[in-house]
Amino acid sequence: MASLKRLRFQIQRYVERRFSTLLLALMAVVFILYSFASMGTNTAKVHKTEKDYFTEYIQSEANPQGKASGANGASGLDAVSTHNFNARLLKQYVKELYDLRPDYELLAQDENQVEYVNIPQQNGIISKSYLENSVSIPPKWLEEVRGKHSLVTGLLREKVKEINKEMAAKVKYSNNHPDETINMDSNLLFKSRGNGAVIVGGHANDETWLALISTRLFRKAGGTLPIEVIIPTREDYKKDAEICDKYLPQLNAQCVILEDILGLTPVIKKFTEESESIEAYIWNRFNDIKKEVAILMSSFDNVLYITPENIMLKPMEHAVFTKQLFKDKGLFVWTDFGLRKTLVDFYKIANVEIGKKKKSEFGLPLTPEVIENLENLSNEVLQDKTNFHDLEGTLPFKQSESSEIIIDKRKHLSTLLLSMYYNFNGHGIYHPLLTGEKEGYWGSKETIIASAHVLGNPYYSINTNVDSNGYMYDDEYHGVSMLQYDPIVDSYSYEAYMKKFSKKGLSKLTWKNYQRWLSASSERRSPLFLNMNNPALRPIELLRDGHVRKENGDRVRLVSSTSYFDNKLETDIWRVMNDYMCYLSIDCAYVNKHFTASQASEKKAFCNQDMKEHLLWVSS
């Protein structure tokens, strides 16, 4: 019996030892498999690393709360058929505008030459007399331009009537047949849906690179609007294909190649009577008409148009398009630094009547109630003693700025087409008329607001003054950027000011007094855009050409802190530029014109030294 117990005990010990061995072996196998799995995971993380990590990071900025990509964009539209339709419509409109161009041979005759004269202002007033005496326009020149202008505005007004009649009939039919689905589009309207932002790119002035930086900063600010970057030509696309195909889509943005959509080859040649064509007409003047073309050919009904030098300072949301102010006006326009010198003859050409009362006081718009209580000005005061652009019927007192426009392109189709006409015929005609200067520099920035004004289409001109932002160096101010403000906040502040001061006399209702009142509280203004154009965000030039790093080694910040933003803004700007150029080693026209494929070591040195040192300095 004892021997049996001993045998059983020995067998039990044997089994336990064998089981322990098997268990240890099994645990070892599991551990090895787990280790291999972990190694695989870690290896994947290592190989995923920097570029892939950055891709995820950038995409998280573009879509911070998991919002659907392209929300409120042009959903429900077939891209190919839409582009084809819009291209045909654009060329149809361009052909009609082309047929109504002025007779340039008549305008070029010796007896029809316009003469500009430099004369001094009296008491700092840009009066009617001053504007009339600063130019001499021959009667035949005036008659020809005015006659063609009348035909164009007549054509556009008829098209608006036709569209309104068609849409009213469709609404009536829809109300009488609620069970049917009615196509509410018109063959005279560009096909589009929803809200979005539009930027014009291109390689010639590094605009696709700038558009990428602007788009990334747009997302960092919290902006959710889908973005289209309009690329003029296929050659532009080829030089920046990586931006279009890889980096912009990460930011809920896409490139739209205009040459492909329009089916036109951008032949840049001297425009002559023998070579007239829609092709030459569009491309030879593209720089002047690009904002109108970009807006019309975009996928969106409601468009935020910005130049690629613009930086968003706060989230640009769909909500701005739902505000009653935008629904009523359909067009927001910002002011520039200068005072308006649009010639009196422009209003004669456009058949716009000028009143005998003021509609603004040194630029500040007066309310209808205030205007109603004003008396008509005497002829002497009208002629010599008041600013012409304070009078009823004139454009706003301040020049306009078209680096930022918010527009309902359906409501303002005629505005955009007339603006295109002004720019097609800008050089020598409408640009000088709108600026009051012979060369007409920057005349294209005035055409949108002028077109809306002439056609009687509603618009809202922001009353918060544009501010300059820059830096001080060697006791000298260097202006770098233009600070533009939120139009909705602007409208609330204007209403509050007029409610408080409108009954206290015109002396209170001036532009300067209003700006002083705005500056007294940060809540009365809200910055929306920082237009960095002097210089633009080209990091290689900024560092090499002495903009941010002086010859003596001093460094400067391009952006000065304000009560609205601090030094972090410029740190973000340099980090974004460093991300793309150095961290992701982007292949694009801007970088490639400075560093060819054989200059990889020079580029690496620039990134590791110049960029890194300045980024560390800016971040400190």
What does this structure look like?
- By secondary structure, this protein is of the alpha/beta class.
- It folds into three domains: 79-461, Spore Coat Polysaccharide Biosynthesis Protein SpsA, Chain A, CATH 3.90.550; 464-533, no CATH class; 538-620, no CATH class.
- The chain is built from 24 helices and 15 strands.
- The protein has helices at 2-62, 79-99, 104-108, 128-133, 139-176, 207-220, 234-239, 241-247, 258-262, 278-283, 286-297, 324-329, 344-349, 368-372, 379-385, 413-424, 426-435, 447-455, 487-501, 511-519, 539-544, 568-583, 589-592, 600-619, and strands at 115-116, 135-136, 195-200, 227-231, 253-257, 302-306, 310-312, 331-339, 360-361, 364-365, 398-408, 460-461, 467-473, 476-485, 527-532.
- The strands form four sheets. It has a seven-stranded mixed β-sheet. Strands 7-15-14-13 form a four-stranded antiparallel β-sheet. The chain has a two-stranded antiparallel ribbon with strand order 1-2.
- The longest helix has 61 residues, at 2-62.
- The relative contact order is 0.10.
Content of β-strand: 5-15%
Please tell me the CATH architecture of the largest domain by its name: Alpha-Beta Complex
Oligomer: single chain
Main-sheet strand order equals 5-4-3-6-11-8-12
